C-alpha cells in the first residue's frame, strides 16, 4: 500500500465503518499469518489455517482496494 492509500485510510476510516472493519481484519490476518509463518515447523493443520488466512486476507484487501480506488477518484 502506498502513502496516498494510507492517507485515504486515515482520512475516511473514522466515518466509514466498512473501510475501518476491512482494515482491522486485514491487520489481524497479517499478524496471524506472520505468527504461523515464523514457526520453523508447521503442522498440517497450521498449514491449512495459513492457507485459509491468506485467502481471507486477499479477499479483504481486494475489497479494501476497491473502496480506496473509488475514494481516489472522488478526490480528483
TrEMBL record:
Which Gene3D superfamilies does this entry report, sorted A to Z?
A: 6.10.280.50
Q: What is this protein called?
A: DUF465 domain-containing protein
Question: What organism does the record attribute this protein to?
Answer: Candidatus Desulfovibrio kirbyi
Upper lineage? Bacteria, Pseudomonadati, Thermodesulfobacteriota, Desulfovibrionia, Desulfovibrionales
Amino acid at each position: 500500500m502506498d502513502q496516498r492509500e494510507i492517507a485515504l485510510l486515515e482520512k475516511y476510516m473514522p466515518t466509514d465503518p466498512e473501510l475501518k472493519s476491512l482494515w482491522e481484519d486485514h491487520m489481524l490476518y497479517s499478524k496471524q499469518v506472520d505468527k504461523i509463518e515464523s514457526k520453523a515447523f508447521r503442522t498440517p493443520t497450521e498449514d491449512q489455517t495459513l492457507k485459509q488466512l491468506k485467502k481471507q486476507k486477499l479477499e479483504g484487501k481486494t475489497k479494501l482496494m476497491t473502496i480506496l480506488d473509488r475514494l481516489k477518484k472522488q478526490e480528483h
